[in-house]
Amino acid sequence: MTLSELQEQFETTLESLYPNEEIQTFFAWLTEAFLGWNRFEASLHKRDIITASEIERFETALNRLKKFEPIQYILGETEWFGLTFQVNKHTLIPRPETEELLRWIIETSSEAPKNILDIGTGSGCIATALALQWPKAKVTAIDISSEALHVAKNNAEYHRVSVSFSEIDILKQASLPEQYDLIISNPPYVRRSEQEKMQPNVLHYEPTSALYVEDVDPFLFYRKIAQLSKHHLTPSGKLYFEINEYLGKELQAVLKNIGFKEVILKKDVFQKHRMICCSL
Fold first, then answer.
1. Rounded CA gap, 120 and 195, in Å?
2. Number of CB atoms found within 10 A of residue 29's CB
3. Are the C-beta atoms of 190 and 243 separated by less than 8 Å?
4. 199: exposed, middle or buried (Cβ count in 10 Å: 0-12, 13-18, 19+)
5. Could you give the angle at the alpha carbon of 143 between the alpha carbons of 139 and 144, nearest 5°?
6. What are phi and psi of 20, to 5 degrees?
7. How many Cβ atoms are within 10 Å of 162's Cβ, its own excluded?
8. In angstroms, rounded to a whole number, what is the distance separating the alpha carbons of residues 112 and 118?
9. Distance from C-alpha of 106 to C-alpha of 101, rounded to nearest angstrom
């Protein structure tokens, strides 16, 4: 079988499940991962014969895609903020909106923070990216999942940055270890009632503990983190959250009631309220 024939079979199998552009992207990513050819190089090898073992790898990936498993989990990595991060079923796949949050943090920081805390680090993408941005900063990252922390540590080591990782359930904490110039969190914020809106690749594969919160208290994590942060931010320190697009105004009011004097709600490129910044 040639590469061209393999691609045709791949696209035909998935055409009823995914948009054509997405299928082509899947094939391009797998071709680069399995054969070492980027899109341009692959176009020059259309008539090359693909070995049986290579075909088997594509077929295994194809079967996983048919079950809507995320391509990032199949590859074991993803590109985010211009960096490569290891991901697996224990970590959320970093999203573009989190890139926007990170850019906002960097753009609005008049000087480099000295002490940074990332709460609910997952794959460690935020902590690692900030450690690269501000190499002199002390960066601490916490998560309730030991499996996620294992991935996060691997990512920090891969990018050769120093990040201190700890397994901590933030909801059980009475205080934070230190004072911080910058605290960031992308906590669970999808209400259980919103699960039906989720795509199958998210609903059936990404870790539920990192995604969902009960409808009766959608601000559970935000409130706890904000209450702790209120006592552990330096005078000029800032607290940043990624947020549920439907609850921005309500969350803004909650954070002001906790005692933050300035609470800035920001929209993403799709004009949805997806991030918030608090200062005392």
1. 20
2. 19
3. no
4. exposed
5. 160
6. -55, -40
7. 11
8. 16
9. 9
Output phi, psi for 138, to 5 deg: -90, 120
In angstroms, the Cα distances linking 236 to 107, 139, 194, 276 are 16, 17, 36, 16
DSSP 2: B
As a whole number of angstroms, the distance between CA 231 and CA 208 comes to: 30
Q: Which two tokens stand for residue 173?
A: 């904490």
CA 128 to chain centre: 12
C-alpha separations of 213 from 125, 189, 194, 197, 210 in Å: 22, 6, 10, 15, 9
C-alpha distances in angstroms, 154 versus 47, 113, 141, 167?
Answer: 38, 24, 13, 15
H or E element that contains 7: helix 3-14
* Structure token pair of residue 240: 């940043």
Q: Which has the closest alpha carbon to 128: 118, 114, 115?
A: 118
Tens-of-pLDDT digits for all 280 residues of the chain? 999 999 999 999 999 999 999 999 999 999 999 999 999 999 999 999 999 999 999 999 999 999 999 999 999 999 999 999 999 999 999 999 999 999 999 999 989 999 999 999 999 999 999 999 999 999 999 999 999 999 999 999 999 999 999 999 999 999 999 999 999 999 999 999 998 888 889 989 999 999 999 999 999 999 999 999 999 999 999 999 999 999 999 999 999 999 999 999 999 999 999 999 999 9
Residues pairing with 190 in the sheet: 212
> What is the distance between the alpha carbons of residues 280 and 273, in angstroms, rounded to a whole number?
21
